[in-house]
Amino acid sequence: MIEFTPLYKHLQQTELADWATVLPSQLETVFNERFHGKMEQWRDLLASLPEISASENTFNADKIHIGSSLDCDQTTQQQLKKILEQFLPWRKGPYELFGLHIDTEWHSDWKWQRVQPHIAPLKNRLVLDIGCGNGYHMWRMLGEGARLVVGADPSQFFLSQFHIMKHYAGADLPIHLLPLKGEELPAFTREYRGKGFDTVFSMGVLYHRQSPITHLQALRYFLRPRGELILETLVIEGNEQQVLIPKDRYAKMRNVWFIPSPDLLTRMLERAGFVNIQVVDINQTTVEEQRVTDWMSYESLADFLDPDDANKTIEGYPAPKRAIVICNVP
Asked: In this predicted structure, what is the pLDDT of residue 139?
């Protein structure tokens, strides 16, 4: 069910063919050395998915639609729902699979609405999504006509969720998720001069990196000359010298290291070698955009904020505010 051969085939049809020679050994290492304890259980669940043929797919709407409720009977639909519930929590979406609405924790469609108007058209582009989660935004990129979409996220749980959708949407579609960290991907450095992706997304990743400049430099090496980076990250208000480094947790997250002001973020991108830098959107995350649902019943944003002041986290820091920045490689 989880198969990377179609990815290698698609890569070999592009100027990214060198990746097809490097990735197999990397993926073998991941599954040998970082094999998740529940991966066999997830693979068994994937193998037990009921056979249903999707009569339609819609990837360019707010809700990813795969199939219709008319494609299967109610018994089969309930069998599918029980399997989907074994993959709780569903964090990024929304999805609708054969009439089953997966109401995810995040309204990831709202983020896409903020991003999409500002980016270069994705039609026929080679696209990389670093930190892609279960792949919701990847499907939106495919819906915009991308030639190939590759996502990277180390979570084998998200990999499994992604393959539920791909199983029904079509195994040969040019969309693939690698269970790798962004820094583990092969970079297009000097020996690959002129090669790279047309568009790279890094959304919700930078503040988790202990060395943010190193992350930005790595993103540059995934892009071809004049390629476009779409960066979305947490920011604080302030001038180009201001940054928040949490003492311990931020909104109950331990792995938040570096939250710059928009002006400092721009300076960082300049130092990393990017040009044409534009901050195109700044938006404070609301409890309507990130919340508890039947498909994600753990704590969510409302539990991470000061109960008396929604403009502060529970630790007293400024509440999550996110900037979207568009820029290019020279």
From this structure: 99
214: left (phi over 0), alpha (psi -120 to 50) or beta: alpha
Gap between the Cα atoms of 226 and 257, Å rounded: 30
Stretches in the chain below the pLDDT threshold 70? 189-193
Residues in a beta bridge with 323 = 233, 282
SS3 28: helix
Strands 197-203 and 223-234: parallel
Closest by Cα among 128, 80, 125, 88 to 104: 88
Instruction: Work out the angle at residue 264's Cα, subtended by the Cα atoms of residues 273 and 138, and round it to the nearest 5 degrees.
Output: 65
Q: Given CATH 3.40.50.150, say whether it is the number of domain 5-328.
A: yes
Residue-wise pLDDT for 151-196, tens only, equals: 999 999 999 999 999 999 999 999 999 999 998 998 776 566 678 9
Query: Does pTM surpass 0.90?
Result: yes
State residue 274 phi and psi, 5-degree precision: -90, 155
As a three-state string, the secondary structure of 156-207 is HHHHHHHHHHHHHHCCCCCEEEECCCHHHCCCCCHHHCCCCEEEEEEECCHH
d(CA 268, CA 212): 9
CA atoms within 13 A on the CB side of 291: 9
**Exposed, middle or buried by CB within 10 Å (0-12, 13-18, 19+), for 215?**
buried
